Amino acid sequence: MEYAPDDVESMYRTLSGAVVPRPIAWVSSTNPDGVDNLAPYSFFNVVSVEPPTVMFSPLDTDERSKDTTRNVRETEEFVVNVVTGDTVEAMNETSATLQADQSEFEHAGVTRVDSETVEPPRVAESPVNFECSLYDTLRVGDSVLVIGEVEHVHVDDALAPDGELDVRELDAVGRLAGSFYSYTRDRFSLERPP
């Protein structure tokens, strides 16, 4: 099968099906009226180590603007919560379409915990949380690339037995396509060549 992007109605299924597994940013934000929002985004990654920055990219059109995008633009703060095997069901619940004045925290039954440096709360059940200030946004087609500078990090002590996060202890979940997800439990190691 071969085709140019203009030959198909949408590239979504090809891109989301081939670029896998994708980490999931479970983003908590707060609107100016104090209503908390919590939503998952699988177009997510690290941007830079210095300064420490992460990015996620929600759909953002006049017809389909996300509460998260509006909240981040208005408050310039958000928290990225890492999704694990223990939190994947709750994460899925937060993808439900709710009114802007309803909080996904209550809808999904997850626990708010005050953040240290930003207004939006973090998810208590998530073992890793990145408190972020807005670094920049960039419109890319019908999406917006949101870049956040990490201001504070929370890591469950069980994930850092030697004082540094051990990926073997983190039961992260990745997004595949459609309704499919993957665990990161089947790991292997390769030594980099000199």
Brief characterization of the structure:
This protein has 194 residues and is an alpha+beta fold.
Which terms would index this structure?
194 residues, alpha+beta, seven-stranded antiparallel beta sheet, three-stranded antiparallel beta sheet, 14% helix
Structure report:
With 194 residues, the protein is of the alpha+beta class. The chain contains four helices and twelve strands; from the N terminus they run αβββββαβααββββββ. The strands form three sheets. A seven-stranded antiparallel beta sheet has the order 3-2-6-9-10-5-4, with helices on one face. The mean pLDDT is 95.
What is the arithmetic mean of pLDDT? 95
How much of the residues is beta strand, in percent? 25-35%
Main sheet overview:
7 strands, antiparallel
Radius of gyration from the CA trace?
17 Å
| Series of H and E elements | HEEEEEHEHHEEEEEE
Helix content: 10-25%
Counting DSSP H or I runs of 4 or more residues, the number of helices is: 4
Low-confidence stretches are: none
DSSP summary, beta strand count: 12
Order of strands, main sheet, comes to 3-2-6-9-10-5-4
Bulk shape: globular
Structural class designation: alpha+beta
State the end-to-end distance.
Answer: 38 Å
